[in-house]
Amino acid sequence: MHTTAKPGTPTSQTLDGTGLTIRDPRTGEYLWSVPEAESGAVNHAVEVARSAAVRWAAVAPGERGAALRAAARALDAAAGELAGLNSSETGRPFEEALAGIAAGVSTLEQYAELGPLHRGHSLLGNRSASDYTVAEPRGVAVLLTPWNDPVAVACGLIGAALVTGNTVVHKPSERCPRLGEALGEVLAAAFPPGVLLTVSGGAGVGALLTGAAVDVIAHVGSSAAGTRIARAGATTGAHVIRENGGNDPLVVDRDVDPGWAAEQAAIGAFSNSGQICTSVERIYVHEAIAARFCAALEAEAALRNSNGSVAPLVDTRLRDTVHAQVAGAVKQGARAVEGGAVPAGPGAFYPATVLLGCTDSMQVMTEETFGPVAAVQVVETFDDGLQLAGSGRYGLAATVLTGSIAHVQKAIAALPVGTVKINEVFGGAPGGSAQPRGASGEGFGYGPELLDEFTRVKVVHVAAPPAFALHLPDEPMPDPVQAERVVEEQTRDEEPLRGGPDRGQDGGPQ
């Protein structure tokens, strides 16, 4: 399955003649290569999924849920092995990788329960008729998942797609292909053949899948890739679900504790080395507390850099992108008071970085950075911060730290994003589904509403035919009222088939 590649390439993931070459983000050393699926294999996977779709759609929802629970148990049993692969390929700390797998287990279990409860609506029509809606699977689902939380995100999409009766062709990120293949092997064993398939590859394989005759495409990843996928879906007619890049703001009001606010900012900007879709990427702090906030945020970053808690980025290619934004901001007048330089030594490490004096013309404030960078801009009023937070082309999430209920309500109404978080950068109840906006995508990417994304709605109207009694061709048509009376009398005279005081449980005499 894995071939040998020549060491010495400068990034942790490359495409060459042998396939996907993976290097350790910590050391830069060669790990392994995974062959990239050829076009024939990609097309065959879609065909196999198509051939299995009718049979899987006919399986009762409760049975599909039972299969998901079996998959969740298998995933839990393989957690250690998968966490090791995750850590090796992406540099994510082992304990954090385990937590991501635990989240994937919980997600599969949740969809196992939600799937059989997914139902249509009763419609109000004529009392003598029935009107309702039925949810039906779309068919073949292509799922393109990312590397930054590879198991949890994949399990959410896989669980929702399968429990609603779709078959799945899953392409994991080319930055963690061996993990993706191992995950596919673990989960697929719980389902009939052809229901869940995994193909490995880069953008070329993704283009083949999104251009194929499939029914739904779900993508979690960059906005650039998401735009290409949306265009492909418009051409083929596939339903497209996208959760794409973000440039999430944090607004810090004047009436909050600056030290606590700095802790929240550090958690949002530096967790998973900033490689989270909803990371805090730009900060707008009120001038009344700006000095104390910035000093505390600098201390938070320095602590993480000194104790070695900042994991490497996934590869040096991403690190180059992150540092280019930081260097560009410094060139335009920002100050890197902590971090901001590529460290010496192997691997793809980048320090927790605090940039002060940022302006809204800097790329670090307008584009997704996806690294451990906290870019700070001081504002004169809360309204100024809110206005800047709501600007830009992304619309994934935003956080506001404030003690004013009036400012809370104003922020909720004003921010054009899918998720608004008040006084906590991460967290929230299960099932808090969101619809990204702008360049951040569209459609529900998680939660109960994801079941709606993977299904089509059919409206059903059932009416009774007019009363009719069987008659010979040469006889006149019977009177409808009389025919209905005859049917009623016949029904009343018939004995029940089961039960009653004189019959056994099988309907026979005692």
Structure description:
The protein has 510 residues and is α/β, with parallel strands linked by helices. It contains 16 helices and 20 strands. The strands form five sheets. A seven-stranded mixed β-sheet has the order 12-13-14-11-10-16-17, sandwiched between helices. It has a six-stranded mixed β-sheet with strand order 7-6-5-8-9-19, with helices on both faces. Helix 2 packs across helix 6, helix 3 runs antiparallel to helix 6 and helix 9 packs across helix 10. The longest helix is centred in the first third of the chain and has 24 residues. The radius of gyration is 29 Å and the shape is globular. The N terminus and C terminus are likely disordered.
Q: Going across the biggest sheet, name each strand in turn.
A: 12-13-14-11-10-16-17
Distance between the termini: 67 Å
Radius of gyration: 29 Å
Instruction: Describe the main β-sheet briefly.
Output: 7 strands, mixed
Low-confidence stretches: 1-12, 494-510
Shape: globular
Number of strands: 20
Mean pLDDT: 91
Q: Structural class of the secondary structure composition?
A: alpha/beta
- Note the total helix count: 16
Determine the strand fraction and express it as a percent band. Answer: 15-25%
- Helix content range of the residues, please? 40-55%
